[in-house]
């Protein structure tokens, strides 16, 4: 769970403060000591912590705060405001060029999530802004990168421009933009090469692409799990390329907060989006105030409401019911259903967005292991399209091949297919109004 330790420690410090009717300078000092430790432990950059503590302390010991009727509440408000400020204050959105297509360069270290995020951004632009994007495959070094982007493009039904790995990335980018112009597309998203570490050749190549393509946005994709190291990486990329914004990925993991809280202060560049899952719709605009409230455990109702609206797809649900009734529910539908449910993210994360839920005992036990769904998905994805549509043909030899392809034991493959068949039977009976289908659920 993201920010868990940080939230807990900050809440402890705040709760003590909230209870006090009268607050002294010494109380503020004591609280700020705890806040400082909490931030350092969350891997926030040392200098950022120092400045933050100084600013909050200076505001908190002002006479208008200490002598007010609710000094504890006021101080909590100050902490929240300053956290918001630390992350940039206002939300910053994606810029568009005066003349289409708007060029966006995606840069970052290998594994940060650059290629996936390029896909997510394309999907976001189309879904939320009604734009027509083109993905450009300009990472010619990582063996599977081009294919990965093409697969993502297919999944999203977004065009991908590639020229293989024998043409220079600058040329690929140039020709991609020409194509977007000719086809009157609104955005091009250039997936550039990453390295394990920052190196000069890479930076030179990125500078060359920048010079030729004149991007409106250069988004650096960084992995939130790397803590304040993410801020260092951002600093280096910014020095070399003058990036325009950061996309912070893997906020669904148990990141401690160091990246989210350090990046803006260290680089001066805003976080514009966050990624919170492997799926292609797991991208959200970054709102500093909402993030501050989430870190403080004060709930994030706005995001929760937006998520619920986005994810509830009534038409799809009806389609599923019809399929069940006609007994034509197959593995493709199965995956789609799984995605719909897990679209909203881990259930415990959703509940924690509700103010006050953070402290509910037993919430941590309410977990659906995302690894289980990921494993099932891996198995289904190793099936051929024909097998997915027609599970009856899954012979032993096919099952062995699927087990090898998904790197799961054959017993697990068998179990999953059995479960699928049983639930299909049960659901089909239930959808026809026959509740006896429930018996199958319990293996009777
Ligand atoms: P690249 O080398 O920077 O292009 O990285 P990829 O796009 O290939 O991503 C590396 C891995 O991180 C892949 O397994 C992605 O599915 C995963 N990934 C990317 N973004 C996220 C995210 O927001 N959350 C999670 N959990 N995984 C992510």
TrEMBL record:
Residue stretches spanning the membrane: none
Keywords assigned by UniProt, alphabetized: Cytoplasm, GTP-binding, Hydrolase, Nucleotide-binding, Ribonucleoprotein, RNA-binding, Signal recognition particle
The protein's enzyme class: hydrolase
Domain SRP54-type proteins GTP-binding: 270-283
InterPro entries: AAA+_ATPase, P-loop_NTPase, Signal_recog_part_SRP54_M_sf, Signal_recog_particl_SRP54_hlx, Signal_recog_particle_SRP54_M, SRP, SRP54, SRP54_GTPase_dom
Keyword Ribonucleoprotein: yes
Subcellular compartments: Cytoplasm
Its EC number(s): 3.6.5.4
Domain of life where this protein originates: Bacteria
HAMAP family recorded: SRP54 (MF_00306)
Subunit structure as annotated in this protein's UniProt entry: Part of the signal recognition particle protein translocation system, which is composed of SRP and FtsY.
Function: Involved in targeting and insertion of nascent membrane proteins into the cytoplasmic membrane. Binds to the hydrophobic signal sequence of the ribosome-nascent chain (RNC) as it emerges from the ribosomes. The SRP-RNC complex is then targeted to the cytoplasmic membrane where it interacts with the SRP receptor FtsY.
Protein name: Signal recognition particle protein
Organism encoding this protein: Carnobacterium inhibens
Organism taxonomic ancestry: Bacteria, Bacillati, Bacillota, Bacilli, Lactobacillales
């Amino acid at each position: 769970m993201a920010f868990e330790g940080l939230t807990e420690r900050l809440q402890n410090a705040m709760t003590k403060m909230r209870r006090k009717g009268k607050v002294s300078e010494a109380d503020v000092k004591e609280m700020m000591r705890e806040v400082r430790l909490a931030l350092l432990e969350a891997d926030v950059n040392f200098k950022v912590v120092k400045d933050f503590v100084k600013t909050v302390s200076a505001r908190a010991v002002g006479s208008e705060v200490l002598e007010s009727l609710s000094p504890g509440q006021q101080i909590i408000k100050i902490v929240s405001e300053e956290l918001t400020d630390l992350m940039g204050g206002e939300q910053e959105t994606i810029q568009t060029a005066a003349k289409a297509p708007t060029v966006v360069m995606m840069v970052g270290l290998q594994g940060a999530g650059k290629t996936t995020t390029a896909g997510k951004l394309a999907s976001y632009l189309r879904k939320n802004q009604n734009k027509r994007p083109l993905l450009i495959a300009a990472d010619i070094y990582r063996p599977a990168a081009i294919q990965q982007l093409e697969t993502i493009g297919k999944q999203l039904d977004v065009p991908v421009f590639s020229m293989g790995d024998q043409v220079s990335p600058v040329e690929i980018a140039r020709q991609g933009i020409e194509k977007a112009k000719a086809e009157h597309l609104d955005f091009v998203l250039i997936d550039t090469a990453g390295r394990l570490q920052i190196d000069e050749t890479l930076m030179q190549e990125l500078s060359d692409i920048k010079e030729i393509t004149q991007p409106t946005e250069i988004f650096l994709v960084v992995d939130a799990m790397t803590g304040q190291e993410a801020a260092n990486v951002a600093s280096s990329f910014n020095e070399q390329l003058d990036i325009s914004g950061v996309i912070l990925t893997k906020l669904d993991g148990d990141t401690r907060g160091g990246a989210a809280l350090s990046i803006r202060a260290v680089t001066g560049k805003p976080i514009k989006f966050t990624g919170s899952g492997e799926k292609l719709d797991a991208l959200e605009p970054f709102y500093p105030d909402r993030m501050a409230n989430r870190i403080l455990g004060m709930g994030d109702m706005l995001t929760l409401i937006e998520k619920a609206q986005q994810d509830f797809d009534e038409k799809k649900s009806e389609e599923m019911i019809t399929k069940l009734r006609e007994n034509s529910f197959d593995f493709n539908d199965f995956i789609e259903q799984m995605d719909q449910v897990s679209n909203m993210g881990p259930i415990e994360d959703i509940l924690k967005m509700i103010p006050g839920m953070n402290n509910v005992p037993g919430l941590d036990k309410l977990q659906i292991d995302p690894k289980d769904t990921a494993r099932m998905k891996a198995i289904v994805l190793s099936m051929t399209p024909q097998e997915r549509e027609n599970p009856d043909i899954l012979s032993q030899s096919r099952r062995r091949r699927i087990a090898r392809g998904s790197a799961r034991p054959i017993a697990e493959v068998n179990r999953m297919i059995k479960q699928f068949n049983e639930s299909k039977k049960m659901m089909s009976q239930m959808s026809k109004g026959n509740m006896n289908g429930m018996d199958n659920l319990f293996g009777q």
